[in-house]
Write a structure and sequence with these properties.
Layout: H1 3-7, E1 12-13, E2 18-19, E3 21-29, H2 38-54, E4 58-64, E5 68-75, H3 81-99, H4 101-107, E6 114-123, H5 128-136
Antiparallel strand pairs: 1-2, 3-5, 3-6, 4-5
Length: 142
């Protein structure tokens, strides 16, 4: 392995792969209702850190407002983002509903905590135009 990979702490190495994958995830409460208190957001972060650790994913940054949360994750290529998202939303919804039942019922009464959709965006690396140009300039085999 090249020494430049060793110098970058964001680069993950495995038996057959070298990767540097980050994603920005956003989850919104059902009907965008402002169900979160500051205490609930702190607990939501704890829950999501535990779920990420189970997937060998690093939760780099977490923040939120009363109706949504943002996560910045660093993950290995073996992790399917859709499965991670399902676990993050499922576990957090179950525990937050249980631990803050009275408060949650005031805002979310139909049995759902999160909206069924989510945002996932890739983060970091070179801009697409630079990657396209790099690929176009690669020498073709004769």
């Amino acid at each position: 392995m090249s020494p430049r990979w060793k110098a970058n702490p964001d680069v993950r190495t495995g038996r057959h792969v070298i990767s540097n994958l980050h994603a920005h995830l956003v989850f919104v409460t059902r009907y965008r209702r402002g169900a979160f208190t500051d205490e609930m957001l702190a607990r939501c972060e704890e829950i999501m850190r535990e779920v990420c650790a189970d997937f060998e994913v690093e939760l780099r940054e977490f923040n939120g407002e009363h109706d949504h949360v943002h996560l910045l994750i660093h993950y290995p290529p073996k992790v399917a983002l859709s499965k991670l998202v399902n676990s993050l939303k499922g576990v957090s919804a179950r525990l937050l509903r249980k631990e803050y039942a009275e408060h949650v019922r005031t805002y979310l009464w139909d049995g759902h905590f999160w909206s069924g959709s989510y945002f996932a965006g890739s983060v970091g690396g070179a801009p697409l135009t630079a990657l396209k140009q790099y690929i176009e300039q690669q020498q073709r085999p004769l």
